[in-house]
């Protein structure tokens, strides 16, 4: 099926009949994004076998614009350093140059997701979305759709009988092992990327970890 996405990604290409392609790949595809960020937006869709997926689509001009942004940041940081020699933050530019290409490669994100899922598979409370490789490219990532409340949403946890202390303890276990055991750490743990839920099947509390674009 990956051939359907062309050499780069048909879903984002102006030359393709978008509606025909979407109906070929999905039973339904919500055009309104389920979520949006600076690099991409996520759409909810249903495959022909009935599975619900999240389709992360990179914004069309991000690749071109990112190199310009890094260049501007470098000029500004150098100017500030010239005015204030004690401002020693050139490492920020180096980090951006190194990490931006990785974050823009959604195949890299998919590999990170699989790596951390295998690495922490002994934690039954951790859920990482499964990647659909045949429907993914460097600019499109198709993954298992997982719902939940944000980790800082006390009302959601109270409504769904989720123990806040249990979540706190499990987050500590998860990130401590990433940092102190494996040295492979998820770098964007804001509430939108860390969800909590009751597993639909077992009714056990789970932590859903999203957005695996950047690891250190």
From TrEMBL:
Domain of life of the source: Eukaryota
Q: Which GO terms describe its molecular function?
A: kinase activity
The protein here is known as: AarF domain-containing protein kinase 1
Q: Which InterPro entries match?
A: ABC1_dom, ADCK1_dom, Kinase-like_dom_sf, Mito_struct-func_regulator, Prot_kinase_dom
Q: What keywords would UniProt list here? A: Kinase, Transferase
Alphabetized PANTHER family for the sequence:
AARF DOMAIN-CONTAINING PROTEIN KINASE 1, ABC1 FAMILY PROTEIN
Family, according to the entry, reads as follows: Belongs to the protein kinase superfamily. ADCK protein kinase family.
Q: Which residues form the Protein kinase domain?
A: 28-216
- The yes or no answer to whether the keyword Transferase is present is yes
Gene3D superfamilies to which the protein is assigned, alphabetical: Transferase(Phosphotransferase) domain 1
Q: Which organism is it from?
A: Characodon lateralis
| Function comment | Appears to be essential for maintaining mitochondrial cristae formation and mitochondrial function by acting via YME1L1 in a kinase-independent manner to regulate essential mitochondrial structural proteins OPA1 and IMMT. The action of this enzyme is not yet clear. It is not known if it has protein kinase activity and what type of substrate it would phosphorylate (Ser, Thr or Tyr).
């Amino acid at each position: 099926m990956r051939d359907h996405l062309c050499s780069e990604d048909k879903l984002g290409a102006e030359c393709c009949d978008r509606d025909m392609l979407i109906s070929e790949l999905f039973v339904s595809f919500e055009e309104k994004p389920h979520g949006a960020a600076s690099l991409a937006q996520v759409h909810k869709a249903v495959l022909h076998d009935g599975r619900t997926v999240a389709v992360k689509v990179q914004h069309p001009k991000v690749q071109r614009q990112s190199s310009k942004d890094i260049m501007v940041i470098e000029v500004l940081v150098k100017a500030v350093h010239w005015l204030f020699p004690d401002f020693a933050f050139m490492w920020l530019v180096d980090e951006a140059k190194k990490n931006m290409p990785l974050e823009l490669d959604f195949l890299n994100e998919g590999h990170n997701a699989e790596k951390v899922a295998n690495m922490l598979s002994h934690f039954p409370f951790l859920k990482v979305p499964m990647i659909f490789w045949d429907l993914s490219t460097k600019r499109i990532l198709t993954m298992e759709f997982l719902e939940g409340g944000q980790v800082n949403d006390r009302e959601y946890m109270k409504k769904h009988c989720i123990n806040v202390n249990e979540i706190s303890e499990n987050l500590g276990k998860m990130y401590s092992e990433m940092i102190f055991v494996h040295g492979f750490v998820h770098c964007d743990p804001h509430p939108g990327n860390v969800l909590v839920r009751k597993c639909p099947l077992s009714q056990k509390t789970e932590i859903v970890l999203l957005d695996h674009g950047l690891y250190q």
